[in-house]
Design a protein that fits this description.
heterodimer; A: about 110 residues; mainly beta; 6-stranded mixed beta sheet; B: about 110 residues; 11 strands; about 60% strand; globular
Chain lengths: ~110, ~110
């Protein structure tokens, strides 16, 4: 069965410091993995995706994530937080071998302190 | 390019009233379509997904239903709303080995 665990429900960082949002997954097949960002009362915007190409994936707004199969992890990082990064972040796995569905983590709320 | 339209953006409905939320997709054919609900402070719960016209799969038993009358139209409905139906509803599409694309969401408040 597929599942996603976001290890932190809330993360607070100071502006200009690094961001780390953690995600672990379980999957029976070779998964596709995604990170989305959601600002209040808005839809979800794709930050980046891994689909079995390079394991280090670069996304928008300076974010990147590394797929580590041995650790079943897909952590999201950014070298320097900006105030506009404050939002909810979702890690998502999809397993096309078991039907076209997306499985969401419960989200991590990122607060950026000025 | 593909776009997804979801409306209305906000909705306040009394308990016991019907519901109809509509979602349409442009720029793609035969998409997989999804309805999610997001309760306050929680993640996304998959309610329904559809791989084709008239094909609806339900993930959880509930007071809601979904229909797909056309290839790129997905409707979420209820005959009688409950207080517990309040939440943020998101429509999405995805197909093949690609990510999900989301609408802007509908904030439903049942009073």
């Amino acid at each position: 069965a597929q599942s996603v665990t976001q290890l932190d429900s809330h993360v607070s960082v100071s502006e200009g410091t690094p961001v780390l949002l953690r995600c672990n997954y379980s999957s029976s097949y070779s998964p596709s993995l995604f990170w989305y960002v959601q600002h209040p009362n808005k839809g979800l915007q794709l930050l980046l995706k891994y689909t079995s190409a390079a394991t280090l994936v670069k996304g928008i707004n300076g974010f990147e994530a590394e797929f580590k199969k041995s650790e079943t992890s897909f952590h999201l990082t950014k070298p320097s937080a900006h105030m506009s990064d404050a939002a909810e972040y979702f890690c998502v796995v999809s397993d096309w071998g078991t039907g076209n569905q997306f499985y969401f983590g419960t989200g991590t709320s990122l607060t950026v302190i000025p | 390019s593909q776009t997804i339209h979801q409306w209305p953006a906000t909705l306040v409905q009394p308990v016991g009233s019907p519901l109809s939320l509509e979602c349409t997709v442009e720029g793609t054919s035969n998409p997989n379509l999804y309805w999610y609900r997001q309760a306050a402070g929680r993640g996304l719960q998959l309610l329904f997904y559809s791989v084709g016209i008239g094909q609806i799969s339900s993930e959880v038993p509930q007071n809601l239903s979904a229909s797909r009358p056309q290839d790129r139209q997905f409707i979420l409905s209820s005959k009688k709303l409950l207080l517990s139906d309040s939440g943020f509803y998101l429509c999405a599409w995805g197909g093949g080995n690609t990510e999900a694309f989301f609408g802007q969401g509908t904030r439903l408040t049942v009073v």
